[in-house]
Amino acid sequence: MNEEIKKEDVDMEVDGDNAEVEIQLAKSGSSVKERKAKSVSDDEYDDDGQLTIDVYQSPDEIILESPIAGVRPEDVDVSITNESVTIKGKREHERRVRDDDYFYQECYWGRFSRSIILPQEVDAERSEAFIKNGVLTVRMPKLNRQRSKKLHVKSE
After folding, report:
1. Does pLDDT of 95 surpass 90?
2. What pTM did the predictor assign?
3. Domains assigned to the chain
4. Could you tell me if residue 29 is left (phi over 0), alpha (psi between -120 and 50 degrees) or otherwise beta?
């Protein structure tokens, strides 16, 4: 690890008690205030947080899982086509905390979204989504469309 600390790596407005903490965090590559959630209007999605996801398959389904702890089911919108899935929602902070009162702020609060192209066609009509123990699971049955079908020729 590089122990050299640049002046811009350290927040120079911290008081003397927090200066050592700031220096140690700068050495580790972290910052006291990792990211501030921006407030966004309902129709803006440019600055949304991005969900982390796992996508895997079983013989009959494609399954998407995403940890979304603290999000109510009514605050999540899952849209599926045969080729893609989009998840949008918001995580609201229960209490108001002044920026100056944070020591660390790494949790994302506000709007989030994620869209992916699926590796195989799915049946959007039969897909389902649920939240259990803070994990969103989307189960999408695979479509097994054959690209060509061999016809048997019969005599009349």
Report:
1. no
2. 0.61
3. 1-32 (no CATH), 36-141 (2.60.40.790)
4. left
